[in-house]
Design brief:
The complex is a heterodimer of chains A (285) and B (210).
Chain A (H helix, E strand, L loop, with lengths): L2 E11 L4 E10 L3 E5 L6 H8 L7 E6 L2 E2 L4 H6 L1 E4 L11 H11 L5 H10 L13 H13 L5 E5 L7 H18 L2 E5 L3 H7 L2 E6 L2 E7 H7 L1 E5 L1 H4 L9 E5 L2 E6 L2 H7 L4 E4 L2 H10 L3
Parallel strand pairs in A: 3-8, 3-9, 6-7, 7-8
Antiparallel strand pairs in A: 1-2, 1-4, 4-5, 9-10, 11-13, 11-14, 12-13
Chain B lengths: L1 H10 L4 H16 L8 H19 L2 H6 L4 H36 L4 H29 L1 H25 L3 H6 L4 H29 L3
Helix pairs in contact in B: 1-5, 2-5, 3-5, 3-6, 3-7, 5-6, 5-9, 6-7, 6-9
Chain lengths: 285, 210
Amino acid sequence: MENALEIKNLCKKYDNFELKNVTFNLPKGMIMGFIGENGAGKTTTIKAILDIIKSYSGEIKILGLDNKANDKKIKEDIGVVLDDMFFPEILTPNDINNTMKSIYKNWDTKMFYDYLKEFSLLPNKQIKTFSKGMQKKLEIITSLSHHPKLLILDEPTSGLDPVARAEIIDIFQSILEKDDCSILLSSHITTDLEHIADYITFINNGEIVLSKTTDELLDNYGIAKCKETEFKKIAKEDYIKYKKNKYGYEILVPDKKDFKTKYDISIIDKITLDDLMVLMIKGEE
Amino acid sequence: MIGFIKKDLAMIKSNFKLLGILIIVYAIMGFSGEMNISFILPFMSVMIMISTFSYDNYNKWDAYSISLPDGRKNSVKAKYVATILLILIVAVITLILSFIISYINTKTIDYEQILVSMLGTIFGTLLVLTFMYPIIYKFGIEKARIAIFLIVFGVAIVGGFILQYIDLSFIGNSLSFLENYLVIILIVVTVVMVYISYKISEKIFSKKEF
């Protein structure tokens, strides 16, 4: 399967933080949820992909092309929503349309205004008069209106209420069906990702902890709950992390079925991405 | 690059009113024979363009612009082109107004004096741009702000003093045989200066991380 995005051994060092050999692939036509706690390296990875940070090592290929050597060509084909970075707030959606139609070869004015109408955003109002949710919607609309082949979205649904989030998620899904687009979507709101993401990539402390299909993850992974005596019988290679609480132990297991056949533990819950994140980050090995 | 210029010009739309008022003030002062403040208008236009850096900074436009096609190159180039465009447009308006004022007040038009002083003003204004833009790109608008005020008002006061108290016509009189060359030299120096400044800013921005 061809990849829309390939990242290999991406490293970037700051004084107090480091990206360590970040490697993952996003196959074409898929949505990848990029999860991790604040400061885990999601935004740094996205900035490296977009060349907003420069001095990093490793290889990044976007739509089959090296990101540094083919910067202009690549950027014609990607749509971007960045956390807190956008047009100056004294501009209006009309100004954005005027600007973008001279920047992108494929800018679709009709599509842009159709979306504005759909989301009830007035074209002649300054961005600063919009609520945070409306601003986010405008950023998303802007990222979509040149028919991108790859969308890179950093926290696009943060600050939106559940109704607006659902609207946005619907749009992402319809874009995928219509335009054969691929999406890398970083988010804290993991419930959204469970619904739409084909792949989940989890970054913690600058390292990729896992990158798998969502189905594989939610079907195979589980949380076994047991008492201390039972926990002590479990071999280390059969679980990833565990957490002790006042009722007993919560154990993150990578293969529920295999675990069930080996151990006599009756409670093995389905996992959510939130559980996975908490156990991976806070759990002990 | 056109898109980026459109964005910069759209940002200063609201300042056109201010420029309009200044032009009227200039006209009134000119007709009443008061002080010549024609140099203020081009200086105001560079100040207005510098204010766009604050908005860019506040909404982190620079980082976003890099995600657009050829963003690193074009956002710097557009800033220079938009500024020069605005300065020239305002300079032409001021020039025409100066001719009219000169004609109404004296029934003659002193083309030479007016043109030389406007050329000096444009040179001074572009000098501000030449020094300020690389400083802004290097250190950011917040840190560069103090330097901007010192430079702009310093140049404006010195420029005003020169225009007010020194008769610039000596340039035309004493160097009349060199006059054409002088203008050409000034234009060439200005173009080279601005180009070097642009290249420095472009280089700074091409390495910048956000």
